[in-house]
Design a protein that fits this description.
Layout lengths: L5 H38 L6 H15 L6 E2 L1 H11 L6 H11 L7 E2 H20 L2 H12 L6 E2 L1 H10 L6 H11 L7 E2 H16 L1
Antiparallel strand pairs: 1-2, 3-4
Helix pairs in contact: 1-2, 2-5, 3-4
Keywords: Calcium, Repeat
Protein name: EF-hand domain-containing protein
InterPro entries: Centrin_CML-like (IPR050145), EF-hand-dom_pair (IPR011992), EF_Hand_1_Ca_BS (IPR018247), EF_hand_dom (IPR002048)
Length: 206
């Protein structure tokens, strides 16, 4: 008969917990390093240097490819993103991000797919920063106006925030509606939404 002491089980459990904690800490450290390096490159305006940008993408890919098999799986992404930020606590959001990166739909993300997607995002980010206020406003309004009726409802705000991985409570939602819905028709028009954004921007720059 095999005898396993309680002390042995406790020690094994403690070791496994410690190892898991160490792995999580390592993942978070790697991602923080990649993020910091990317910010430094952005700040220094050296994104035109392909080698530096490629190195950042390589490190970012490696930090997500936990089993180092050259591909990012759904479980890889879930493990890393959930440890990285509360924003990614939604499996639905993580799966949607995964599907966007998985360009050939083979249920895994290659380094080539990862780099292509990141470069697309970078290009969008550059174009957004170069765009006028009207162009920025249109992009944000379209994001919330899910049924494209030129109005934003309570449901659309809640749904959009949920898809972005953010929870908005009833009090904050009601406060937002009362502030933006100037004519009290229980929906936010394009003009009302624009005034809200201008007000938020004005408060931010004070």
């Amino acid at each position: 008969m095999l005898h396993i002491s309680k002390t042995s089980v406790k020690t094994t459990t403690t070791d496994n917990t410690y190892e898991s904690s160490q792995q999580t800490s390592t993942i978070n450290t790697e991602i923080s390093t990649v993020t910091r390096e990317k910010q430094q490159v952005l700040h220094a305006n050296t994104l035109e240097t392909p080698i530096e940008w490629e190195q950042i993408l390589d490190r970012e890919f490696q930090s997500i490819d936990i089993d180092a098999d050259g591909y990012i799986s759904v479980s890889d992404m879930q493990s890393v993103l959930k440890n990285f930020s509360h924003i990614y606590n939604s499996n639905e959001l993580i799966l949607r991000i995964f599907e966007e990166l998985d360009l050939n739909h083979d249920q895994r993300i290659s380094k080539q797919e990862f780099k292509l997607y990141k470069n697309i995002l970078l290009d969008r980010e550059k174009r957004f920063h170069r765009s006028t206020f009207e162009e920025k406003f249109d992009s944000i309004f379209i994001l919330f106006d899910r049924n494209q009726d030129n109005y934003i409802s309570r449901h659309e705000i809640r749904e959009t925030m949920h898809n972005l991985g953010e929870y908005i409570d009833d009090n904050l939602l009601e406060e937002m509606m009362q502030t933006a819905d100037i004519n009290h028709d229980d929906r936010i028009s394009r003009e009302e939404f624009k005034k809200l954004l201008l007000q938020l921007y004005s408060n931010k720059t004070k």
